Amino acid sequence: MPSTPKGSPLLYSYTDYLTWPEDERWELINGVPYNMTPAPTPKHQEILGEIFRLLANWLKGKKCKAYMAPFDVRLVESETIDSMIDKVVQPDITVVCDPQKIDGRGCLGIPDMIIEILSPSTFKKDLGIKLALYESSGVQEYWVVHPMDETVLVFQIQNGQYGKPTVYSAPDMIPVGLFEGFVIPLESVFRDALL
Predict the structure, then answer these.
(1) What is the largest CA-CA distance in the chain?
(2) pLDDT attached to residue 120
(3) What are the pLDDT digits (tens) for 124-135?
(4) Which of 3, 28, 106, 163 has the most beta carbons within 10 angstroms of its beta carbon?
């Protein structure tokens, strides 16, 4: 488990990350570790499961694949060595269209799409630090799902920036920008989720 001495901004790499206890979930953003506890709520998991099911079913037999957390995404170029990697995240859902970015430890490279489902403990990180990280890394499409409001913010890269998100709520159908003709019905995503 990482600890930072008082007054000393200790930064970590993926080499350190690999030594941390397997029963704990961490993210590493610009060398700074973020503990991912507490565990997600049942509502979070139901929303996650439904979005993942819809995506995975649509992608079956296609080049792009969807992955559900825990799944390490190392946001670097593919030739970067472990000791130089300082950005490792575990998005709720990751879509990768280049099979060469997938290895035995997750994704090494920039995914095409990331979906995060907000919780009270991740709200600021998902809409602040991670939004900036995904934008600067070049993630083409970033969705932020708000379970309590039953809304989804969709950010898409244009000229290297996300700009203002498009906001969707049930009964909207969200078009997935990466895949022409594919939409996700929010009625299905939020309908059965527990409060």
Answers:
(1) 53
(2) 75
(3) 888 889 999 999
(4) 28
C-alpha 77/C-alpha 131 separation (Å) is 19
Give the C-alpha separation, 93 to 151, whole Å. 17
Q: Residue 101 and residue 123: Cα distance in Å, rounded?
A: 28
- CA atoms of 89 and 111, how far apart (whole Å): 11
Question: Considering only the top CATH level, what class is 38-191?
Answer: alpha beta
157's CB contacts (< 8 A; 6+ apart) are 135, 138, 139, 140, 141
Q: Model confidence at 192, in pLDDT bands (50, 70, 90)? A: low
Question: Tell me, what amino acid is at 117?
Answer: I
Strands of the sheet containing 93-96, edge to edge, are 65-68, 93-96, 113-117, 141-146, 151-156, 166-169
Residue 35 vs residues 21, 29, 39, 65, 150: alpha-carbon distances, Å: 12, 11, 11, 27, 26
